[in-house]
Amino acid sequence: MHARAQAEASTSGRACGSTTCPAVPLPRRCRGTSGTRGTAAPPPPRPPAALARPPAPRRVACAAAPPQQQGTGEWSERLLSITKKRPRRGRPGNGGGGGGAAGDGPGAGARQLQQQRQQRDAVEVAVTDEDLLAADAAFDAAGGGDDEDEWGGDGAAGGGAAGSGGRMLGGGEKRLPPSVRCFDTARIFVKSGDGGAGCVAFRREPFVEHGGPNGGNGGRGGHVWAVADEGLNSLLPFRNQAHFRAHSGAAGQGAMRDGAHGEDLEIRVPLGTIIRARDAGEDAPPLAELLAPGQRALLAVGGRGGRGNLSFKTGRNTAPAFAEKGEAGYELYVDLELKVVADVGIVGVPNAGKSTLLSVLTAARPKIANYPFTTLVPNLGVCEMDFRTTVFADVPGLLEGAHEGHGLGHRFLRHVQRCRALVHVLDGTSPDPVGDYRAICLELELFNPELMDKPQVVAYNKTDVPDSGDYWEFVREYLVEEEGLDPGRVLPISAATGRGVKDLVRAVRAVLDDLGPATLEPSTDALNRTAAPKRFDSEARIDRFTVEKEPLPQPGGDQLFYVRGAAIERFAQMTNWDYYEAVKRFQRVLDVSGISQSLRDAGIREGDAVALGDVGEFVWSEERGEAAVYGAWLEDMRSRGRNRQGVAAWPGAKK
Ligand SMILES: Nc1nc2c(ncn2[C@@H]2O[C@H](COP(=O)(O)OP(=O)(O)OP(=O)(O)O)[C@@H](O)[C@H]2O)c(=O)[nH]1
Ligand SMILES: [Mg+2]
What we know:
Elements: H1 2-20, E1 28-31, E2 37-40, H2 75-83, H3 108-119, H4 129-141, H5 159-162, H6 178-184, E3 185-191, E4 224-229, H7 237-240, E5 243-245, E6 265-270, E7 273-277, E8 288-290, E9 296-300, E10 331-338, E11 342-348, H8 354-361, E12 379-385, E13 388-394, H9 413-417, E14 419-427, H10 433-447, E15 456-461, H11 469-482, E16 490-492, H12 501-515, E17 546-549, E18 560-564, H13 566-574, H14 580-593, H15 595-601, E19 609-612, E20 616-619, H16 626-639
Parallel strand pairs: 1-20, 3-5, 4-6, 11-13, 11-14, 14-15, 15-16, 18-19
Antiparallel strand pairs: 1-2, 3-10, 4-9, 7-8, 7-10, 12-13, 17-18, 19-20
Helix pairs in contact: 2-4, 3-4
Family: Belongs to the TRAFAC class OBG-HflX-like GTPase superfamily. OBG GTPase family.
Pfam families: DUF1967, GTP1_OBG, MMR_HSR1
Protein name: GTP-binding protein, chloroplastic
């Protein structure tokens, strides 16, 4: 009895050890089939003595170095260099100030731009298409980024990743600054919680002999949800935080105590947000499209908790001495896209006074200056008047040819698309306000004909300047008679002095009222999952796998086989290699699922390596004797620095 008590004491000790030990680093190597042997590759990798041929690094296919990232400039930087002088921040080539992820310094093209910048004494220089083309050429010469792709590389769109406020010179970063990418689109990383580990424990009580296993299951990891929040009106918060991880489940404990589930994580997004998985195919439906306040959609399901040894008790094995690890949480990058960014978009030619108007209407403080393209990225502002709020968006000035990419505005025309109404600001001091109006309308129409269906209020600005009155009557007559605009929607204002601005807001609100309440219609067949899917879907079956042989020769002459399959990979990930019985179970599953046979059919030989998805590698052996497997497992435990606390004393364990 005494001996029994000692055995049980050591048993409990090991149980605790198993639940608290850190996860085994991946990739790991463990020995398969009869000679299955959990081996890991903790640095430095020490080949176990039992292996005649310790596996050499085998992933030759991955040997190619990732393409070198090139330093890039930023479009706005180039434009600024043309339009005005800016105080120089730091030396050229040092990656810019503040950009945590700033990569290489600017190349030859960027240096050339620096020189240009020094040469130019231009606070006001008309920007011609030639200038823009030259800037484009210089930028491309400097190794500029991809025009089309507005997403920033693999990194999330957060300022944390890109170095908020810093110049984005890293090759992975694209031309648009993070503030714009996050304005109506953002890319974030989400990870659901890992499942808690199962527990190995046995009931120990005075006068209860053979108390049996009683290790509890680990708790499920927290889910990740997206929740629509009416208090938000842009995706800008994702500039500050771009990584979201839910809590892990707690480990199971003895006395049949299951671990607590991990806390779910809610990511709050504005109404009208569409959420897509980055890696989903073109035709795949979005994960979510949230239109109503409080609407929730599941983005990532929490990892399953590992089962404790109580769950593995059977008639044949009444005292299982192993437990599972928790399933790793699912991680993915998701792209967020906002359908409606503002109630009203402010459009107009450069220097018309759009930013000035936004600054008097709202608390926003955009940059205002007397040269074109002061505004390089859109600005949002909330106008509060008469107990009502209206969101205005000021976009960079549009040029003729904007729809084809001239100027800056074309990048932001899609923002205009996401406004319900437009305020068209005309510069009263312009030599041809009507021409300006027609040019902008044409650009909007060419970009997207639907833009012209949006109701417009025209604000004839700068009426405080004496000669602005010259054209006012003519402009009004033209807009009302030729363009058919409602006379109440053509207003003279002076953004600088605030004259007429209240009337403008009232006119805009009348237009919004005519449109009726903002109803968001679903535009996609988004999944909008509100509950976790069934745990075992038909796709993830243990007998669904593929076996492939690496065609390239391996160092040492051994061969490498790839086995891929969602269920078998998950199974291997949840196997706790510290338990001998778990290793034997893994080996049985390889046989039962048909993987062993498929590998033999593919020509596997003793000592060859098998890579199991991303989970790890193990060395193939046909040895089936208990002693060989146990010996190999022991050797592996030693090589990983694990002790086999209590193993020899488990009920029924081999000595
Ligand atoms: N006199 C006068 N000047 C104005 C008025 N509104 C704007 N301005 C001036 O016009 C210049 C351009 O104003 P911004 O608000 O920067 O013009 P913008 O349309 O935002 O220009 P971009 O962002 O470059 O497209 C600034 O110098 C303003 O002070 C106005 O009502 N009266
Ligand atoms: Mg502006």
